[in-house]
Amino acid sequence: MPYQAAIQRSDPTALIFLVDQSGSMADRMASSERTKAQFVSDVLNRTLMNLVTRCTKSDGIRDYFEIGVIGYGGGGARNGFHGVLSTSPLQPISQIEANPLRVEDRKRKVDDGAGGFLEQSVKFPVWFEPKADGGTPMCAGITSAAEALANWCDAHPQSYPPTVLHVTDGESTDGDPEALADTLRQFHTSDGNVLLLNLHVSTQSGQPVQFPSTDGALPDQYAKLLFRMSSQLPEHLIRVAQEKGIGVSFESRGFMFNAEAGEIVNFFDIGTRASQLR
Amino acid sequence: MLGINFQASVPKSLSEQEANEDAVSFDIDRGIFAISDGASESFDSKMWARLLVTRFVQQPAVNPEWVSAIRQSYEADWDFDAMTWSQQAAFDRGSFATLLGVEWREHTHELEVIAIGDSLAVHLDAAGSCTSHPYRQAEQFNERPRLLSTNAEANAFVSSSTFYSESCAVWHLKEHSRVLLMTDALGQWLLTDPDSFHARVELLLSANNESAFNQFVLEQRRLGAMRLDDTTFMSLSISKGVPSP
Asked: Taking burial as the number of CB atoms within 10 A of a residue's CB, which of A9, A222, B33, B230 is the most buried?
């Protein structure tokens, strides 16, 4: 059975966030003052924070994950991190923890145990800034992810396979990405092939399509292309989706179309639930 | 008297014994035994699991106040303001652990079992029949278990009206009865194939010293038959004399 390998420090897994930063990502989300780029960067920062949190023990950070962020837009594909994190396409999560762009101080109210509330200061890290300009060089982005993961799979033959979470709102402007996506999904470890999960972000109110098992409900060729580019969901991710009340089947693909805020959050959460950390 | 025949624990990684997040505690004179499996994705589940079993043996009465008192002991050991952002976030997320506790009532020969999470108790009687709690099938180990947490909101289920009926079982033990307590990787292995259950019990009980138990666990991991996880086991039986732990 694939996708069962325990994730441990000797056999970590890899996650790549592949983010469309084209000009159209500056459009506002449906029923929101925030742009798609702003919302996606917020969710990505929160996701990185959650991943770090999952790996943080009282005695230090455990390197269960190696993480990369690739942005594509005006100027092609580039490392989405800054500073020391941008020196390599994948970084161990302890390096992610140690090198946010900044850590903001935010306030929250906590129960004081006597019927009242105390204001407590909490720290919120930021790694990724919203950006939106130029065209949609999706082929360049997928190629960058493939280059990073080909080497990674060779170096980690026993690991839970890498996962690529791809977020986009438009059609590729540098060619047909389907063959490149097929190649990316062919890279593998002994535990299975690379998982490519695609998220289409919407600016319009409309019924989202979540983890479809066929392309029958998809409205156009572009949506059907993204469906074909998406991996079938492994069993444990199907269970996570079911726990969130999403209707999925064993044939469901890792694809959401016309996603709004709630679906984007779910997509990142489900897509980063690799199997058990040990 | 209920005594311990054998007890052992094998960590995920033999080279990191100190990273074993399972905990065991018992008081043979009072007939109280407990094991806890600290979840890997936790800030300090090793400490949380140890607090749970220690307190259970002191006071085997799990209720919301009982859990709240242990949470306060846990929190008292940390200075939130002095933590890094990642420690704060992980501390807030909480530490999680199972609790499997048993209390022996000598006068009625009854064993009360409380199981929170996916640690497993098994009762084998002399006639060869078997009862297990809280799971009966290996597939149940694939579900997300309810765990006791340092995060108060996650413990709401302890206040539920069905908590005791779902968590507790009472077994009547007879001479030659055996009670096996184990964490989830071993429990899932034991229940995997009903047809080979008795053969698996024999194999497990034959690994009755630390070296043999280590070898048994490592071999099952190597075969892919047992998940890689901290693995803790305790075998109990009624004895007339003084038990040897």
From this structure: B33
Residue A277 lies in a domain: no
Amino acid at residue number B27: D
Tell me whether residues A103 and B85 touch, CB distance under 8 A.
yes
Counting the structural domains of chain A, the total is 1
B85 to chain A, any CB pair closer than 8 A? The answer is yes
- Which residues of chain A lie closer than 8 angstroms to B44, CB-CB? 57-58
Residue B245 lies inside a defined structural domain of this protein: no
CB distance B43–A56 less than 8 Å? yes
Q: Which of A143, A201, A197, A138 is nearest to A165 (CA)?
A: A197
* Chain-centroid distance, C-alpha A253: 15
- Six-digit token pair at B142? 């694939």
Q: What is the value of pTM for the model shown?
A: 0.86
> Per-residue pLDDT for chain A (278 aa), expressed as one digit of tens each?
899 888 988 899 999 999 999 999 999 887 788 899 999 998 999 999 999 999 999 989 999 999 999 999 998 999 999 999 999 999 999 999 999 999 888 777 777 767 788 887 778 899 999 999 999 999 999 999 999 999 999 999 999 999 999 999 988 999 999 999 999 999 999 999 999 999 998 766 678 899 999 999 888 898 999 999 999 999 999 999 998 999 999 999 999 998 887 888 888 888 888 766 66
Domain that residue A214 falls in? 13-271
